[in-house]
Amino acid sequence: MKGKGGKNAWALFLLLLAGIVLGGFIGMLADGVSSLNWLSYGQTFGLDDPVVLNLGLLVVTFGLTIKITIASIIGVIVAIFIYRFL
């Protein structure tokens, strides 16, 4: 699966995923530091209470919550720059 210029789209996906995870981690760490707490500012959206499908024999629970912070956005931007220069 090659993208523009012969680059692998899976590499972009993995870099974006790593940027989101590392950015979220940095945002959590920066939450307690007074000069860096702006990195943890963001919005959470999704299902607050999971949806439960009870079929008697099988119980399936659906739930998804996404938290977007300034640090995760910066992580995505850095991942895109790294991908462009690889």
Automatic annotation (TrEMBL):
Segments passing through the bilayer: 12-30, 50-83
Keywords carried by this UniProt record: Membrane, Transmembrane, Transmembrane helix
Cited Pfam families: DUF4321
InterPro entries: DUF4321
Descriptive protein name: DUF4321 domain-containing protein
Lineage: Bacteria, Bacillati, Bacillota, Clostridia, Lachnospirales
